[in-house]
Design goal:
Helix content is about 50%, strand content about 10%. It is α/β, with parallel strands linked by helices.
């Protein structure tokens, strides 16, 4: 009986290998090779842009400019030039308090920008754990930094983050020329604000300046999945100039655009806005406005040490959900195109690995059992050759990803010489490979879940969309998570219970209650 069962499994495996050698299967595998190589090329181009900035900084330092991490031209440090720099208001919407927040906030308020600066920390209420933590921090710097905490109250027409941002803009100084929105998980370099401002002065046509994070995985699979999710997106921000992408964690804009509601930036965000960056990117596209990302705008982003796989799933759900929000018909079409292409490419990337695994398993079983050579031999060799090609493409892709990460780690170390140096040695590349497979397999599942539910739980607040806009907001501390997804921040108090969120349970609910999204929470 045992022999019969193994023989049956062998036949099933060999049949699967034959199916994976069909013309359609071969097309899928070749498509997977191309996706790997395109990703490798994109990361190679991105590393080239970042490497040019590294060479520029080193060359300036060799010529005697010890402050090349702040300014390309040391003459820009002269008092007359520093005194004429415009005022910048830094608005930071906060929610909760986690292990990396204090370090991040210190990096933000200790900027070496020479012009007038004000920092506006905006919280939902005084009960937010961030309120007490920021109050203590600002007391430490009360004689050296112009900073204050603003209580925004609860949002009613848009996401809480957007509400906090708009309240911060209302309270900014009347002389501010630029406003910089920062997430509380952004770790700035000493010269980041100065570099962003210099680009805005150089080119007044810039509508928004942005940057992108360099994830520092904490060791868990969930943290590596988030790192892998961000890496393909990083190509769009490593252009050294014009880009079509926007990251809500770092956005510098003209303050007058908010004072005058230029292009409807305030009204579009306030009236049903869910995602700040997607809304502003849509406005920029509709009015042909310029978005840029300078090569120095890459920021270390340490992930929570206890970042679980369930918290990664929550994060992925929020990322796919933004494609359900839109402002215009054109924006809806663009989001549908992104939705379709991303889902297709994600599974187009993941499926060839399953086929390669089948080919390798079939070949190993064939030769280990000493089956007689026949017509299947050619299929075995064909399957092994495609698996070998896939292996080579994967190695090229991982080497390119490794190289971009290495370059960005080096750039961050140059831009923050006072900080503890980042190291590439902490990255586990076996986990990176596994995360690539997991993330690309789960993305379409999350995207379809978001499409059919039209609701999301974000930091204990459930938002419901209708026609791309928020129309209903539900708050419940009992039903929401105790921690945020990336930073592991406590949302409701100094201590919270462990996150018992079950990823598998969420998938069961996804498939079991597909048409009843309002009856359960994520």
């Amino acid at each position: 009986m045992e022999i019969w069962s193994f023989d049956s499994l062998d036949e099933l495996l060999f049949a699967a290998s034959r199916v994976c050698s069909s013309p359609v299967a071969l097309f899928i595998q070749i498509q997977g090779f191309i996706i790997c190589l395109v990703l490798a090329l994109g990361w190679a181009l991105a590393s080239h842009v970042r490497s040019k900035e590294i060479r520029r900084i080193k060359e300036n330092m060799r010529r005697g400019n010890s402050f090349a991490f702040l300014y390309q031209d040391i003459n820009d440090l002269e008092h007359t030039k520093q005194a004429n720099l415009p005022m910048v208001s830094v608005v930071m919407p906060l929610k909760g308090f986690g292990e990396h927040n204090l370090h991040n906030w210190r990096s933000q308020i200790t900027s070496l920008y020479g012009g007038p600066l004000e920092f506006l920390f905006v919280v939902e209420s005084t009960e937010d754990p961030a309120y007490t933590a920021v109050s203590r921090l600002l007391k430490e710097f009360e004689d050296t930094v112009d900073a204050k905490i603003i209580v925004a109250s609860l949002s009613t027409t848009c996401s809480q983050k957007i509400h906090n941002q708009l309240v911060g803009v209302e309270k900014m100084h009347k002389d501010s020329k630029y406003v910089l929105f920062l997430d509380d998980d952004v770790r700035l370099h000493p010269g980041s604000i100065g570099a962003l401002t210099a680009e805005m002065i150089k080119n007044p046509d810039i509508f928004i300046q942005t940057g992108y994070p360099l994830d520092l995985p904490s060791g868990s699979l969930g943290s590596y999945c988030i790192y892998e999710y961000h890496m393909p997106c990083s190509m769009g921000f490593a252009t050294g100039g014009k880009t079509f992408f926007l990251w809500g964690g770092c956005m510098m804009m003209h303050a007058d655009d908010f004072r005058t509601d230029h292009h409807g930036v305030v009204s579009q965000l306030r009236d049903g806005g869910y995602s700040d960056d997607m809304t502003l990117a849509a406005i920029a596209g509709a009015h042909k406005r310029l978005i840029t990302s300078p090569p120095v705008a890459v920021f270390p982003h340490p992930l929570a040490s206890d970042l679980s796989f369930g918290r990664y799933w929550n994060y992925l759900r929020k990322q796919t959900f933004v494609l359900e929000s839109y402002t215009t018909k054109v924006n809806w079409i663009m989001n549908r195109a992104l939705f379709s292409s991303h889902c297709y490419l994600s599974w187009g990337f993941a499926m060839p690995y399953i086929m390669s695994a089948i080919h390798v398993a079939a070949a190993l079983r064939f030769y280990s059992k000493g089956y007689s050579y026949g017509e299947d031999t050619a299929l075995r060799l064909h399957g092994l050759s495609t698996a070998a090609c896939h292996f080579i493409c994967t190695v090229i892709e991982l080497l390119s990803m490794w190289n971009l990460t290495r370059v960005e780690v080096h750039l961050c170390n140059l831009l923050s010489p006072e900080a503890s140096p980042l190291s590439l040695a902490s990255y586990n590349w076996c986990l990176v490979f596994i995360a690539m497979l997991v993330d690309n397999f789960l993305y379409p599942i999350s995207a379809f879940r978001s499409h059919f539910s039209q609701s999301i739980n974000w930091s204990g607040i459930r938002y419901h969309l209708r026609n791309g806009k928020i129309y209903k907001i539900e708050r419940s501390k009992d039903k929401g998570p105790k921690f945020t997804d990336l930073g592991g921040k406590h949302l409701y108090g100094k201590k919270g219970a462990p996150n018992h969120y079950c990823f598998l349970k969420s998938l069961c609910k996804t498939f079991g209650q597909w048409r009843q999204p309002k009856k359960y929470d994520v």
